[in-house]
Amino acid sequence: MTEQPSILRYRLLLVLAAVLWSLSGLFVKSPLLAVIPLDSRGPLLACWRAIFAGLFFVPFVRPSALRWRRGLVPMVVAFTLMNVLFVSSMTRTTSAAAIFLQYTATAWVALLSWLFLHDRLRRSTCVSLVGALAGITWIVATEQTAGRELGNVLALGSGFSLGCTLVMLRVLRDEDSTWLTALNHLIAGAVLLPWALLSGVSLSPEQWGLIALLGVVQMGLPYILFTRAVRHVPITEAVLISMLEPILNPIWVWLAWGEEIGRNIEVGGMLILGGLAMKYGIDAFADRRSRPEVRT
Fold this sequence. Notes:
Elements: H1 3-21, H2 24-28, H3 31-34, H4 38-57, H5 72-92, H6 95-102, H7 105-116, H8 123-142, H9 149-171, H10 177-198, H11 205-229, H12 235-242, H13 244-257, H14 263-290
């Protein structure tokens, strides 16, 4: 009788993590940050968001987890690219397009794992690949708004970079995940720091406060909640719950700042998310069928 309330609590933690992750567009699209020159806005926000998030993670890293491996280099490079590409894409296209195209990362993970780690390409994975390809094709082919093409390309690049990051995290799965996450954020911020300091852009105290919240509340805190909850909830269910993020992200931006969600983005996003939902649904069903039946 006590197990179900406990599982419910961890599911609620996953929901809260997804909601906090979904706030990226709300912060990046805010009028307070929109006054930063466009050419500087993406890299500047990516730099300080990563640094604030990395500093938030530091107290959670166990000293015994600190060690260096060669595999950390490609992981950090991929994460750094993902960080700057995603935030930059958010400033140059709609929040919906940026988050949906980044969610193609799951398809990239499947493809890269098959090519380089020799994983078996499961039927459910092929479903997600088809959904991702259909969604990408639809968004790119139907995007008619001038100026958003670059943002969509950057968003797609962020999805690929995130896929590479996740593959490297799997290669480094024996390492402490909090240490890897802190390292990713701190180095991603440090790489951009010289540019940020020399950019000539000065930030107001209000802008600094908002960027700090972007790093801690939108990036740092949800990761801690997710890693705590995922130990008690099946990973397929956890991933499905986390898909609230791309659904809520454009809704917050629309409610707060009035950014419209184009019908083409809605259709493309549903193709991408639908493929992912079918994949994890098929996997969950297959895992349930493979478990031995317990008779009482």
